[in-house]
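Homework help board

Subject: predicted structure for assignment chain

Our instructor gave us this sequence and asked us to write out the predicted structure in token form, then describe one feature. I got the tokens but I'm not sure how to describe them. Can anyone check?
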Amino acid sequence: MARRKGDAAREHAKCICRILLEARPAGLGFSRLLTACELPPSQARDGLAMLRDQIAEAGRPPLVYSRRDKWYLFTADPNELESYEIFWVRVKLVQARRFINSTIIPHTRLAPDDKRVRLINTHITAVESALDLIA
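My token output:
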């Protein structure tokens, strides 16, 4: 995570933002974005992460990945945003369930009297329930 906060990530974010603004309203796929910015995949991912942080701070329209079109784009379209949000909520729900089933439950069996383990179990189960309601 720390590498996404540096000057290099800021420069990559500027390049990606410029390229995506030029491609509006359609957006660009990841491979075309790499070509246009002349960045390797790892630097482009860092730049995308930094760009999302900068957009959030500035209150600009979100940068999303359209699963339908397979493009990155800036959008305020409620349908596009909802589709992107539901996709990520489902991803996080699967991750939470795997974490519960593979780590929390076995740990709870090993240390049933440990208050910290019970607290973690309670909190992660609440997260799972909230994500399940949204998805």
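Reply (TA_rk): Your tokens look well-formed. For the description, you could write something like this. The chain has two domains: 2-75, 79-134. That's the kind of observation they're looking for.
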